[in-house]
Fold this sequence. Notes:
Among the domains are: 34-99; 200-450, Beta-galactosidase, Chain A, domain 5. It is built from 20 helices and 22 strands. It has a nine-stranded antiparallel sheet. Strands 7-12-19-18-15 form a five-stranded antiparallel sheet. Strands 1-2-3-6 form a four-stranded antiparallel sheet, with no helix packed on it.
Amino acid sequence: MNKSPIPVKNWVLFIFASILIMVAWTYFDYKNRPVQVSKEKKDEVCELLNPLVSFLPMGNGLADAWAYAGREMSRHVPPDVAEKVLAQAAEAKHKEEANRPKKPAVAPFKPEYVELGGEKFNLQVRLTNKGGGVDRVIVSGVKTESNEVRFPQADKDGREVRVGGENGQRQPLHLIPSPADMPDDERDALPHELTLPSFLLYLYSTPDDRRPNDLQGEKAWKIVSRPQATGTQEAVFETEVPEAGLKITKTFSLAPETYHIGLAVKIEKLPGASPKPFRYQLSGGHGVPIEGVWYTNVFRNFIAGWVDKSGSARRQMDDSMSITRELGSERVTRGEGRLQYAAICNQYFASAICVDDEQPNQNFIEFARATAEGFYRGDLPSKPQLGDICPRMISEPINLTDAPIEHKFLLYHGPIKVRLLNQLRGDEAVAPSLVERYERTLNLRTMTDYQSSTWLGDFVSLIGWTDLTIATTNLMHWVLGLLMHVWDKAAFAIIVLTVLVRMALMPLSRRQTAQMQKVQAKMAKMQPQLKALEAEYKGKDPQELHRAKMKMMLENGVNPMAQLGGCLLLLLQMPIFMGLYYSLQENVFFRLRTFLWIDNLAAPDMLIPWGNHIPIISDSTRLGELGYLGPYFNLLPILAVTLMVVQQWLMMPPAADEQQASQQKMMKWMMILMAFVFYKTPSGLVLYFIISTLWALTERKLFPKKVVEPAKVDDWGGDAGGNGVRLKPKAPKPSWMKQKLQEVLDAAEKKPNTERRR
């Protein structure tokens, strides 16, 4: 049976029908979800079920399935069993509370604040005696001579925040925001977990307890000392835990040139006490802001890094959506290695707890995990990607003897791409040794320079593509940084980089173009014979026609693979494109940089705001994030795709056969999909594509057009119309690729027809 090729219009209809089915399914699923328990009832069920889940053992085996099932029950309790669940959970909670020691009440008090930092400090830190924690961290960088903030604050739309209106000064980045700085209505709406300070320390009564005692995070710690006005500043907090027989001291320190807060935790016995074995938990920062909620694909991520037994740096990453849905992440255990950091990151910045490398014992953290903060409040269940998360480091069991113990940490707050600190100059410069410590010693580079955790990430890492992409990304960072030091304009750096890339690829581009023109000229000569061949095989197996065409092309010195020359050029550009993409995705120096009407080169250009109420287009409540374009009309993606269509129209040769014509039609339809892909892409990257396409069009004009001569009698043994007997011209010596292709064709010809058609 002869098989006819599937028409291109059928493929296009299939693609659009698939998209339509996905959109329709999302819409009807949203409209026809089963009735759930009311929010009040759901909160009550979840509150009572959580103690049940806490009894379940946790590890990395089958027991986790039970905990997962319990968490799923707490989120999807159907109405008909809600009362039974409430009764059973209430009874279990009553028994648990009856057997649990009574927690002493915390006397109300007004928090006191201690300020670290100043005009010449990279960080501005506010400590609080509530839990002896960190109330606020501002990452401003040292102010330049123009008195401009190096790292400004961005709002949820990706625009800069100014103090005192549009003409006011840029607000520095509040990486760890303080609830005390919020308006009263916003602060009152916060769940209790998000009103607490960051970097609190909690004790486990025994090493086997699943939950720590949260008393230390609520009570007033004693302020032992406050910082001096100059040099490295230091503040000391302490508290006593009589029921555990312990005294805890936390010493915070901050130096002007650093992007970390030093933290020393000292635990000692109270006089006459005999403390039992215990462990502690150090919580991390929370409230890290999300930039560009409507366009970003990076909300908040939890990243834990460790060194395995071979000394290689490893990491595990979980996003806020999965952590919020599962009420926490899985444990990241040290195994036979050593845990180094646990961080919460947005697209550009990170807040990380790092084990200080300058202490005798660096292997006292047993595992780390992230927790969901305030999940069952507000609109978080409907948008789990916006859920707040907090990293936590848990120590190994401690059996305190007469000598106190002291564990040291670095609380890093700065760019997620730590090597970018090398690009700061003048008064803003960071010591290369400190950047090396962040990047290589503490291995914070793995927050960005690491493979994805999927099977595809494992594969591309195995073949070396990951290392190539990381190297190219770092090269792009270096070139862009160098260009911005020449002229502090981000758009200028992108344009010059594009020109440099295209110039570097010009010899290959010219060679490929010349090769393509040569192939097109030979194909034009062969058109009469190809048409005759199509007439000869009309009604026969299309695969046989294809093999006959390939054989004719080889016999006449035309390499069919040469038509894929443009793909080679595209493949060589892929590491550069990916490097530029990742560099713009993580480069803090492109945030909020302007160009023409663009307010932020790291965000879409946002030319015209059209609001959030256009069905499907800008209203994400109808179809979720699928097909959601956002509240702004972006012009740059339209310009980029238009130029690509023009380039395709001008540079694509006429179709030699029906199959090639179908492929060209498919490419035209794909341009429509490209507009959607580019729509929420950072404008800096779209600017690269625009300049690159303009360069390609200009470069094309520099090539002289080759005149295609008609077929001669000498070539074919017939007239110019293709009549007569075809004769083989003297073909050049075939290349290795041509020889292999000829062998494949010869083997296919030797097979019986029935086997070829099977």
